[in-house]
Amino acid sequence: MARFGLIGGSYQSQSVIADCQRTMNWYTETIESQMGASAMALYPTPGLTLFGTLPGGVQRGMLEINGRLFAVGGPNFYELNSFGIPTSYGSVGNDLQMVTMASNGTLGNQIVICSAGSLYIFNLNTNTLTQIGGLTGIPAMVVYCSSYFVALLQNSNIFQVSNLLDGSTWNPLSVQQNEVFPENIASIVSAYDFLFVLGQDGHSQVYYNSGANQFTPFSPISGAYMEEGCGAPKSPVVMDNTVMWIGGRQGKGDIAWRANGYTPLRISTFAEETAWASYPAKGSDAVGYTYRDQGHTFWVLRYPSANNGFGATWVYDAAGQQWHERGFWSQQGPTGYSAHLSTCAVFAFGQQLVGDWNSGNIYSQSISTLTDNGTTIRRWRRSPHIAAERERVFLQRLQIDVEVGLGPQPPLLDGFGNPRDPQLQLSISRDGSKTFGVQYTLNCGQAGAYKKRAILRRLGQARDFAFDIVATDPIPWRIIEGYVEGTGFNTPSQRLVKQIAQAQ
Q1: Would the CA dihedral through 7, 13, 16, 18 be positive or negative?
Q2: CA neighbor of 185 nearest in space, from 222, 227, 233
Q3: Domain assignment present for 487
C-alpha cells in the first residue's frame, strides 16, 4: 500500500477539482522527531464543559487580572469566582457587539471597558463601576500601552490618551491625530509597549512612547510604516511574539498578516481568502482571540455572517503554520455546522476559559473533554484527490491508520443494546469531490483492541477519488496516516526522511 497524504489542514481551492481538503475539529501536529510513522498527525480539538453562566445575556468579552476574572454578558459587568459564580457590578451600554477591556493592573487597579460607544471604569479596590466622560469623540475601542490607556475614536484618524496610569481622566489636550497615512484608523493594538495603529484603507504605523510631550506621548517609529491596513477591526491579536490581523480595505477583510518586525508577512492561503471573500460581510466581521495549548498557539477567528448567519470559525496554528476549521454540530444551516461556540478566551483559575457568542455561558476548554457541553463533536476530514493524471484507477483497499482500542468503559452500545466499537464513517467521491456516495462504517476497536485495523476493501474504479472521514463517537480520535492499494499505488512508501536516512 502507498501513502496518499491524508494528513493536512483545510485547503479547498476555488475549484474543488484542484484541491478539496477540509479539516474540521481536528488540527495537525508535526512529528518533530522526523522518524515517526508519519510526518504529521491529526489530533482532536478541545471540548467544552460548563464553568459558569452570566444571567444578563450573551458573552461579549472577558479579562483576567491579578487572579480575578471579569466578563461582560449582555448589558452587565460581572466578576466570577473560581466556582463560576457571577457577581454583577453594574451595567454598560449594550449593542450586542464584543467589548474591549484594558487594565493597568497592580500599578493603578483599574479596568477600562469600551462598550457601545462609551467608556466605563472599574476600580479593583472598591469594586465600583462608573461611566467616563471627557472624551472628545465616541470611543470605538480601548487598550493599555506604556502606562497610558488609549481610546480610538470612531470614524476618525484620532486616538485619545488618558492621564498617566489613570483611566478615569482624559485631558482634551491629549488627542493625537495620525498624520502618517490619510485614511481613518480601523483598529489599535498594544504589543510590547508599542502601539500598532492599523488604517482602514491599506496603511499602518507603529508608535512608541517617546515622552516628548506629556499630553501627546506617542510618536511614530521611523521605518515602522506598513503598506497594509486592517479590514476586520476585531480580528487583531498579540501572539507568538508579534501582532496578527486580517488585512484589507474598503470594508473587506481579505488576507491574514503577521508582523515580521515592521513588515507584514502573509500567513493565509488562497483557500482561506477565497472562503472569507464568499461571506456576506466579505471577512470584515472577523472576531479574533488567541490561546495556547499542548505547545500550539492558536488564532481563532469567528465570522458571524458566514453560513447563512450560523457563522464559521477558522483557526491558524502558529506552531505548524496550518489552518483548520472548527464548528459546533448544530445540525442547522446549509452545512449542519455553526461557528464554534467560543468567541473570547482567558486563562484563569488554572484552566482555559472561553465565552459563548450565543449565550451567557463560559466554558472550560480542554482536550480531555470529548463533547461540546454535552453535544457531539463531529470531526470531519476530506482527503486530497487520489488520481493518476486522470487515468482510470482501481483501488482494492483503503486503510486509515487511526489510533485504535480507545473505546470507553463501559463500552458504547449499538441500537440493540450490544457493545460496539467506536466507528469512523467513510464515504467516497468518484467525481472529483463534487458528490459523495453511500456511507461505510469502519470499526476502530473497543478498549484494549490495539491490533484492530480500519480497512475498507473493493473501492472500485474512478479517474479521481476523494474520501470523507467523519468521527462522532466521544473518544480522542487521532489519525496518523492513510494508505491505499491499487493501480499505481501498490508499492509501500516510506517517509522521505527515512529514505534519506537509509541512503546515508
Answers
A1: negative
A2: 233
A3: yes
